[in-house]
Amino acid sequence: MKEYRPQEIEKKWQEVWEEKKVFYTPQRSEKPKYYALVMFPYPSGTLHVGHVKNYVIGDIVARYKRMRGYNVLHPFGYDAFGLPAENAAIEKGIHPEEWTRKNINTIRGQVKKLGISYDWSREIATCDEEYYKWTQWIFLQLYKNGLAYKKKAAVNWCPKCKTVLANEQVKDGKCERCGTSVTIRHLEQWFFKITDYAERLLNDLDKLTGWPEHVKTMQRNWIGKSTGAEIDFPVEGSDTKIRVFTTRPDTLWGVTFMALAPESPLVEELVPEEKKEELQEFLERVKQQDRFRRTSVEAEKEGFFLGRYAINPVTGERIPIYVANYILMEYGTGAIMGVPAHDQRDFSFAKKYGIPIKVVIKPADRDLDPEKMEEAYEGEGIMVNSGPFDGTPSSEGIEKVINWLEEKGIGKRSVQYKLRDWLISRQRYWGAPIPIIYCEKCGIVPVPEEDLPVRLPKDVEFLPTGQSPLSFHEGFKRTKCPICGGEAQRETDTMDTFVDSSWYFLRYVNPHLEDKPFEPDDVNYWLPVDQYIGGVEHAVLHLLYSRFVTKVLHDLGYLNFDEPFTNLFTQGMIYKDGAKMSKSKGNVVSPDEMIEKYGADTLRMYILFMAPPEKDAEWSDAGIEGVHRFIKRLWNTFYTVLPFVKEENTENLVLKNSTEKELRRKLHSIIKKITEDIEGGFKFNTAISGLMELVNHLSQYLNSVPQEEWNRKLLREIVEKLTLALSPFAPHLAEEFWHDLGNDSLVVQQAWPSYDPKALEVEEVEIAIQINGKVRDKVVVPVDISEEALKRIVLERERVKEYVDGKPIKKFLYVRGRIVNIVV
Ligand code: ANZ
Ligand code: ZN
């Protein structure tokens, strides 16, 4: 028997697939289209088995859909711009491009060894000129339509990476990449106006029925829609009014102070001369505090009394105005009305500064005594001490008070979103240059489309200065104004890499098109993506940005769809020794090593078999060993059977006995189950169990039936269907089997195995039941029922119970398929 040498057969079949271009996708076909997409990797080094899981899941989907008769687009590429390349340049003196290309080559080699069915002719890297030219084009479309703008902004600054970070890249006040505490800087920055799309990005989540609920929830929370009112509070002794945003206008009668964000321009305006110095000290201190943490309920509240008062517009009461660290300038109006009795943060603040607490919402079950309250009462109740609204349930009060305020002209209905505009400027080299020119005469001038790309120069110096290295490159920086021809300067910031990845799924459709980013007819044919697969870590940013850019291009008439991904699957992570794999922990499982040891088919099968793919799972060396043993057993079984079936076909298959019938029934029911496991939601682990079960039944048959009696046609049917069903999971092995079965064709180009519903029927027999020598009853049971199972059924029957009549059973004899004899 030939020996299983995975490294040999895998290489062989990979070459055949490549040579015959079997995975090259025609742009159009008679077949229905299916776009299976995996999140492209950031080429920062080598792949670990977590990436492999992503690509293997994608490959199963792609291969399965091809066998199901679809024209499948399954592309691959690299999210190749970004900070680590530049940091490597600073640390190791390698040019970011060189570093990136080297990593891309490594990754491509790794992926090819896995036998993933990508159409390599569509490979893209976002750092390619032919790609970033179109990223710049997208910037220009946004700019021309008022969706890209520049403003001075307080930005998150990572002192270690020396770069601006988007809010999304700050985790708990720390830089997502290096963990350094983030500080604030004021810089001129480019933004995309994603807030214009907040409502649609929120509402259209309801359309995405093929997305996991938890991802949609994360997006909803990120967009963070709040409805309420904006209310104006006049300042005593001034014409100024402080406008606040509140979601609880029903608590307006309980306001006992006001608070401004430290960054609010009103602070400077209102502070009396004699308090200026003291204020400055306070501001300097709190502005350093982490903007995300300082607003949390737990954070220590700090305030500064401005010495000024506002007037509550509904009660006429005089209320002190503070600056407080827990008020954000970026949300609502940057000012609040403080209601200590009903807001926990206001409560802590009031306690600390001795501000009165005034109850205006009374819970149904008790009275609140402001003197004794230990925390705010934030729930619903009845409005009290609230003038005309006394007795109104707070739930209705919110609406009623808003209407009343609008009538009186004191306030108005308002909707706020947590979502901020997307800050896309990066003071870095390794990204797509922002295609903008500054001219003294003409101002901000977009680079004309025909002048794209704005090329990244190669010869730059990498110094950790905090400014874009491009700003020191005179040749890049100095240019001519496209309008007046005068001396002008280029923008030296590059774009956030999330811009690159916000449209790559469109580029795969026409990856090398020279005069357009894509052909609208082609993208409208291929998109939306039918199945997108990736990590849940991209649940907010990447997916939200991609949805946004898709909607913009839709509105500009380029796309006839406005959601890019119909179905989304988020795979679980692979842990090792109870921890996330990372180089620093030294617990990375390298796919190369596993492939060398066991072959790619074993690695693929093990990754899918270890757990349901959406679940996190723990890598186990014993686990992969086990799967490898199964594959070897499968191999041996296959080649034991092969000589008997090689010349056979399955025409006129006759089943001689119940053993054969039962074996065929199992074959068909397992094929059915595997099909349903794949269709019904990525249950690849149980699909693989099905394959294992089938191999067990087959070897049982081979071991228990003498060789001369083997039903060759049946065996042919089994190994054929087994090979076909195996092929998405272990494609090289399946190709080898298929070839050795005498086929000239490739298994990857075959149809998915069907099952015969008739074969699923369990054969049944009627059994006579004799009690003390007389036939008293009859029962219909499956032919192969065990004696034990039969006994249970028989003794439960009413007629049998009647005759046995509680007496002990002396004898129970089963003549298989015919009769039961009971003696009592
Ligand atoms: C008075 C009030 C009384 C409030 C009450 C709440 C409870 P969400 O749901 O997150 O939108 N707020 C408004 N702007 C703020 C800012 N820039 N920084 C910090 N806090 C701000 O929260 C809205 C509530 O958060 C608003 O409603 C306001 O406090 C506060 F019993 O106004 B509320
Ligand atoms: Zn000019």
How would you characterize this protein structure?
This protein is of the alpha+beta class and 824 residues long. It has five domains: 1-123 and 525-619, 3-Layer(aba) Sandwich (Rossmann fold), CATH 3.40.50.620; 138-193 and 423-497, no CATH class; 225-417, Isoleucyl-tRNA Synthetase, domain 2 (Alpha-Beta Complex), CATH 3.90.740.10; 623-760, Isoleucyl-tRNA Synthetase, Domain 1 (Orthogonal Bundle), CATH 1.10.730; 764-823, Ubiquitin-like (UB roll) (Roll). The protein has 25 helices and 34 strands. The strands form eleven sheets. The chain has a four-stranded parallel beta sheet, covered by helices on one side. It has a four-stranded antiparallel beta sheet with strand order 6-5-9-19. It is globular, with a radius of gyration of 35 Å. The two termini are 57 Å apart. The model has no long low-confidence stretch (mean pLDDT 93).
